[in-house]
């Protein structure tokens, strides 16, 4: 049986989000990728969270919602491009967006 997985990665450069579709059968292989450039407003919000500031928990929650919606749109685009539906995907892995290391 074939299993499909999605991996989501974004780095500290905040330039964009990479989404990969992988197939697992007797081996693992990359099926397709999709790249989403980081919108300027979200880039600025995430960059602003890299250091302490006023209302950072509220600002982080707002940025998280925007980031998650962007990822969801990217996943939907990748699935459509590959003629897949959500039910075809066994799991999605994402560590989220790193804001700062302390």
TrEMBL record:
<dbReference type="InterPro" id="IPR005338">
    <property type="entry name" value="Anhydro_N_Ac-Mur_kinase"/>
</dbReference>
<dbReference type="GO" id="GO:0016773">
    <property type="term" value="F:phosphotransferase activity, alcohol group as acceptor"/>
</dbReference>
<dbReference type="Pfam" id="PF03702">
    <property type="entry name" value="AnmK"/>
</dbReference>
<dbReference type="GO" id="GO:0005524">
    <property type="term" value="F:ATP binding"/>
</dbReference>
<keyword id="KW-0808">Transferase</keyword>
<dbReference type="GO" id="GO:0009254">
    <property type="term" value="P:peptidoglycan turnover"/>
</dbReference>
<dbReference type="GO" id="GO:0006040">
    <property type="term" value="P:amino sugar metabolic process"/>
</dbReference>
<keyword id="KW-0418">Kinase</keyword>
<dbReference type="GO" id="GO:0016301">
    <property type="term" value="F:kinase activity"/>
</dbReference>
<protein>
    <submittedName>
        <fullName>Anhydro-N-acetylmuramic acid kinase</fullName>
    </submittedName>
</protein>
């Amino acid at each position: 049986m074939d299993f499909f997985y999605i991996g989501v990665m974004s780095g500290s450069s905040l330039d964009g989000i990479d989404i990969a579709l992988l197939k697992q059968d007797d081996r693992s292989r990359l099926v397709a990728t999709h790249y989403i450039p980081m919108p300027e407003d979200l880039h600025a919000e995430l960059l602003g969270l890299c250091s302490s500031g006023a209302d950072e928990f509220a600002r982080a929650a707002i940025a998280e919602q925007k980031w998650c919606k962007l990822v969801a749109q990217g996943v939907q685009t990748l699935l459509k491009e590959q003629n897949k539906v959500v039910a075809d995907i066994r799991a999605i892995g994402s560590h989220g967006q790193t804001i700062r290391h302390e």
